[in-house]
Design a protein that fits this description.
The protein is an alpha/beta fold. The protein has helices at about 10-15, 80-85, 105-115, 130-140, 165-175, 190-195, 220-225, 255-265, 285-295, 300-315; strands spanning about 45-50, 90-95, 120-125, 145-150, 180, 205, 235-240, 270. It has an 8-stranded parallel β-sheet with strand order 1-2-3-4-5-6-7-8. Helix 4 (about 130-140) runs parallel beside helix 5 (about 165-175) and helix 7 packs parallel to helix 8 (about 255-265).
Length: about 325
């Protein structure tokens, strides 16, 4: 998987656009809560990667270059998310700033504030600005625990070479704020170099580094991802099953890749996530995503499932 990196807009077009819209409606907190799989009455799973947005584009304007018609589905609010996550025993969520809003993280921050204790945030900021570390620290005080970065249209060999990104990685190590990387496998060597340069910085690779997005899980791509395990603060989101491998439930074709990641990183550095709302469109469901980790991979121990479903994300995004 080489060449130009897809923007979020292009990824949505290729993977999600045209799928059925998410059902609307609101669900107040505490309604529809399911018993946990452990039978202890707790609902403690964490979804480490969800996007939310509102159709209210007057209060929350879209960034330049985006149109309301490109919002697909037209709405995915916290209340709509609760309809999917709460029956599955998911209690907390790491929100990822949606590309529709550019560098304006207001809707995500308001969601964190309005549902205290439920959400943490992964923001997007302008790394070309002077002293981005000041904005990182400001957002940390508002519930942000990570920052999404990606190559955009930069050459993958040099996409992390700017002074602004260097300042972000340095601040990430000082403040324990994660660099959350949306990349293809060919961008992993540059991340490996930065991990060596800033060993205290938490680094989270989104969606298994998109290994398998073409439909084929290439051994060389997976080996590049697993090579990051030598860095003690490197993590992987085991997520976006709708977009990887066969792209069909029950997603068990992804088992060998997840097993190799477990063997390399240990379950304590892997975290499950859905990438909602895209995981709940068409024939894909929230329950199928969580059940892959919860019940369909027999090589995972009970403790490893707890790491994937709660402990790792809790340590990185809710500490």
């Amino acid at each position: 998987m080489t060449g130009r990196h897809l923007t979020r807009r292009e990824l949505l077009h290729d993977v999600a656009l045209g799928a059925a819209a998410v059902a609307g409606g609101a669900l107040s907190q505490g309604v529809g809560m399911a018993e946990s799989p452990n039978g202890d009455g707790k609902n403690d799973a964490i979804d480490a990667h969800v996007h939310v947005w509102t159709p209210d584009t007057q209060k929350y304007p879209l960034a330049a270059g985006y149109r309301r018609e490109e919002m697909a589905p037209s709405s995915f609010t916290p209340e709509q998310l609760f309809e999917h996550m709460k029956p599955c025993g998911v209690a907390r969520v790491a929100l990822v700033q949606m590309s529709f809003y550019g560098f304006d993280n207001s809707y995500m921050l308001d969601t964190i504030r309005n549902f205290r204790g439920v959400f943490s945030g992964i923001a997007v900021i302008d790394d070309s600005e002077n002293r981005p570390q000041e904005e990182m620290r400001r957002l940390k005080a508002l519930g942000v625990r990570g920052f999404r970065i990606y190559p955009r249209n930069m050459p993958v060999d040099h996409w992390l070479d700017s002074p602004g990104l260097a300042a972000m990685w340095k601040c990430g190590g000082e403040e324990k704020l994660a660099m959350c990387c949306l990349v293809n496998p060919d961008a992993l060597p540059a991340i490996d170099r930065m991990c060596g340069k800033y060993p205290e910085t938490p680094v989270v690779i989104d969606h298994c580094g998109r290994v398998g997005m073409t439909g084929e899980i290439r051994a060389s791509d997976l080996e590049q991802l697993c090579a990051l395990s030598r860095h003690k603060n490197a993590y992987v989101k085991v997520s976006a099953f709708y977009a990887l491998g066969k792209k069909a439930a029950p997603y068990t074709d992804l088992g060998p890749m997840i097993r190799q990641l477990r063997d390399s990183f240990g379950a304590e550095r892997l975290m499950w996530a859905t990438d909602c709302p895209y995981q709940v469109q068409g024939h894909h469901t929230y329950r199928d995503s969580i059940e892959l980790i919860r019940s369909r991979l027999d090589f995972l121990t009970a403790d490893e499932r707890q790491s994937l479903l709660r402990k790792t994300a809790e340590r990185v995004f809710f500490a």
